[in-house]
Design brief:
Elements: H1 19-35, H2 44-51, H3 60-83, H4 85-104, H5 109-137, H6 141-172, H7 177-180, H8 182-196, H9 210-233, H10 238-258, H11 268-272, H12 274-304, H13 309-315, H14 317-334, H15 341-358, H16 367-394, H17 402-439, H18 446-479
Helix pairs in contact: 1-5, 1-6, 1-8, 3-4, 3-5, 3-9, 3-17, 4-5, 4-8, 5-17, 6-13, 6-14, 6-16, 9-10, 9-17, 12-16, 12-17, 12-18, 14-16, 15-16, 15-18, 17-18
Length: 500
């Protein structure tokens, strides 16, 4: 059975008079989660020096968060469906705030790694709950467009905002504030949640699919951890290959079990829907390219151009502003009138064009002439893409499945980020080494050739990122067939209400 298309109400409930204040609360929580995927990156050198971390241990500050976050998302989304979204949202906020305070107060590398893992675990509860709350709060097609425009802008620009805020906090305060900053944000969101959020109670009599949890979360941990380790140890490392193989086997077993489980963790009709499948694939490919952009441009600004952490953060401001402006002022207004793919496919093409512009980088490129146009094009492309993806994925999903549906979208982002970072970093490293071999001669200046080799590696990887975004555009054009909300045929019931 096909799901109702983008923008259709999922249930006939009275509009919440506090829904726009609820959007503020949900947006704060989403911003906090997305920020933490990148805010610590700029602070890593300072944290490493103060805590005495080795170069080999340093990646665990990032890996601990991404593995816990990506691996537990499906569980977090289903918990929200079973016990109630508001209650789960509050638990996620409290846990995330406490874990952030613990990380900021870390006195050893192990304490910081543990705090980051806890952050990731509570983020896995918070992120899908925030999106499912949004989907069940805004059911009117026109209001839904505005709400998802704001949410999409935060999701699309949050990673860049993390670099900005991380650079400013590290340079003018202390690296610890990159973690402490979450606590006041979480407290504000918590007070707002108690005041303005409302939700249906959880599903009485429902049980958690324990075998599904073990297979699904275990498979996702193996995949995410494997790709993170591939960045450090290489693709032929036995441990990396073992993790990836185990992850694939567990996920295959998970899919088999979900077709037979009496109360599945992830009902398969959610991912079998053509529009949702297209959006999941589009999001994964887009994030693969975007994580590569943020990784390489951060190093390019600081290592090649010699920018300070604060200046590096500010260099990402244009991409953030472009994403927010296009998502809220353009995509949100158009989505009610045009099919989602009419925004998503051109958005991905523009993103690919922006990546292509950035492949012209040299060791002395001008920010205004050579870098800014590419960042703006990518920002516009993301603004056109994120908002319709979120709206389309959550359209027509019964409230009982909104949490796990949101978690599946978040999972596609996390898996895409892990794959993209590992794949593009490996490509950049290999290209850099090849350039050095070809150009490092007796008459060459070693330092200059080394800088040119690094930039060459980045540009090769950015070409690959552009290709990934073109693939995302193709996936959108071929798979996402949802009509414009105002032309959609109302369905009698959300898809899973008719599926026992």
């Amino acid at each position: 059975m096909n799901a109702p298309r983008t923008g259709e109400p999922t249930a006939s409930v009275d509009a919440d008079p506090h829904r726009w204040w609820g959007l503020v609360v949900i947006a704060l929580a989403q911003l906090m989660v997305v920020l933490d995927s990148t805010i610590v990156n700029v602070a890593l050198p300072s944290a490493q020096d103060e805590l005495g971390m080795t170069d080999g241990d340093r990646p665990w500050v990032i890996t601990a968060y991404t593995v816990a976050f990506g691996g537990l998302l499906l569980l977090g989304g289903r918990i929200a469906d079973l016990v109630g979204r508001k209650r789960t949202f509050v638990i996620g906020l409290i846990g995330f705030a406490a874990a952030s305070a613990l990380g900021g107060a870390a006195v050893s590398p192990g304490m910081l790694f543990g705090a980051r893992a806890l952050q990731g675990a509570f983020a896995a509860v918070l992120a899908p709950t925030a999106l499912s709350l949004l989907a069940t709060t805004f059911t009117d097609p026109r209001e839904r467009g505005k709400a998802f425009g704001i949410f999409g802008a935060l999701a699309g620009s949050g990673s860049a905002t993390g670099f900005i805020l991380g650079g400013l906090l590290t340079e003018y305060f202390n690296w610890r504030w990159c973690l402490y900053v979450n606590t006041p944000i979480a407290v504000l969101a918590l007070l707002g949640a108690f005041a303005v959020l409302r939700d249906r109670p959880g599903r009485t009599g429902a049980r958690l699919d324990v075998p599904g949890v073990l297979l699904g979360c275990g498979g996702l941990v193996g995949i995410v951890y494997g790709f993170n380790e591939a960045e450090t140890h290489g693709w032929t490392d036995v441990f990396v290959l073992g993790l990836l193989a185990a992850g694939v086997v567990l996920l295959a077993a998970f899919v088999w079990w979900q077709g037979r489980a009496p109360m599945p963790l992830l009902p398969l009709h959610i991912v079998k829907d053509r529009d949702r499948a297209g959006c999941f694939l589009t999001m994964m490919l887009a994030i693969m390219g975007m994580f590569g952009l943020f990784l390489f441009m951060t190093y390019y600004f600081q290592v090649v151009l010699g920018y300070s952490p604060a200046r590096t953060g500010l260099a990402f401001v244009p991409i953030t502003l472009a994403t927010v402006a296009v998502s809220t002022q353009f995509a949100a207004r158009l989505l009610h009138h045009v099919p989602p793919r009419a925004l998503m496919a051109p958005g991905m093409v523009l993103g690919a064009c922006g990546m292509a512009v950035l492949t012209r980088l040299t060791v002395d490129s001008s920010y205004a002439a050579d870098i800014l146009p590419g960042l703006l094009l990518v920002g516009v492309g993301m603004g056109l893409t994120y908002m319709p993806v979120f709206a389309t994925v959550t359209a027509g999903v019964a409230p009982r499945d909104s949490g796990v549906t949101s978690a599946t979208l978040n999972t596609s982002q996390q898996v895409g980020g892990s794959i993209g970072t590992a794949l593009l970093n490996t490509l950049a490293t290999t290209s850099t080494a090849g350039y050095l071999t070809a150009h490092l001669t007796a008459s060459a200046q070693p330092d200059e050739v080394a800088r040119e080799a690094v930039v060459h590696g980045y540009t090769v990887a950015l070409w690959c990122a552009a290709g990934l975004m073109l693939l995302a555009a193709l996936a959108t054009a071929l798979l996402v067939t949802a009509r414009a909300p105002k032309h959609a045929t109302p369905a009698k019931a959300p898809v899973s209400e008719s599926v026992a």
